[in-house]
Amino acid sequence: MGGIATDALFSAPRDGYTYMMAVNSLVSEIPYTIKPKYDPFKELVPLVEIVNSPLVLIANPALPVSNMKDMVAYVKAHPGKVSFASYSAGTLSHVMGLQFNKAAGLDMQHVGYKGSPPAVQDVMAGQVQFMFDGAATSVPGIKGGKLKALAVTSARRSPVLPDVPTVSEQGHPEMTQFPWIALWSTPDVPAAPQAKMRAETIRVISDAAFRQKFAAFGLEVDPKPPTVAEMQQALRREHQTVGALLNSIGYKPE
Question: Which DSSP category does 166 fall into?
């Protein structure tokens, strides 16, 4: 969950030579499941976003659904009998299912797993019907016909799944959320090396070859990376959204 990397970052000299690469959930989600020893909003700084990727709403291919509207109709036609998987309880994969339950008036039951692979396998096998999964782990199954993609949670369609509409296109703009990986620092590192590292990182990720390699896995590079302040605002907003949904079901870490 990033604990080892975070400890290494905190124990390193604050001279601008040690940084950490981690997903935004380190701040927005994980604190609800694993109580950190630090204040993630005061002791970590997202320096620059590297890549981002939507979650993909996937379904067992045998189900008679091809979009979110079909999914709503199917779930309502089978009350109390439909479940959705997540790659871990308390994560965005879990929260998106809760959010869809609330938005569409559904009663899907959550089944939490320890990682995407076993969850995706059970969706393929029909043990669970639906899941919000990362593109990197779901796209191979979609391309191979073992999974059906109903929506992506990004603001625009994913280049790797151009025929799959966004959640916003299907009437749920409030569900536009996606994980992003950033380079992190601590606030007491001098401003000059932080600024140089951000500038050099943006130069590298702007390279067409770099972007193309990551695009093959459904990972996108923002052509205009958000500022540090914008990332901090996004983290607080995401943290509040996750907290509200988990609190609404009385979520307690296992």
Answer: B
* Residue 1 scores a pLDDT above 60: no
Contact (Cβ atoms closer than 8 angstroms) between residue 104 and residue 42 = no
Asked if pLDDT for residue 134 goes beyond 60, the answer is yes
Q: In this structure, are residues 123 and 30 in contact, taking their beta carbons and an 8 Å threshold?
A: no
The residue with tokens 């590298």 is: 204
Same domain? For 147 and 205 the reply is: no
What are the distances in angstroms from CA 164 to CA 56, 85, 176, 206?
Answer: 9, 20, 14, 26
Domain boundary pick from 126, 153, 175 = 175
Residue with tokens 């695009």: 215
Alpha carbons 83 and 170: distance in angstroms, whole number: 21
Q: Residues 6 or more apart from 128 whose CB is under 8 A from it?
A: 83, 84, 85, 111, 119, 122
Start-to-end Cα distance in the chain: 15
Contact 176, 168 (CB under 8 A): yes
Domain containing 213 equals 3-52+179-248
pLDDT in tens, 144-185: 999 999 999 999 999 899 999 999 999 999 999 989 999 999
What's the chain's length in residues? Answer: 254
Last residue of a domain, one of 118, 141, 175: 175
Does the residue 253 lie in any domain? Answer: no
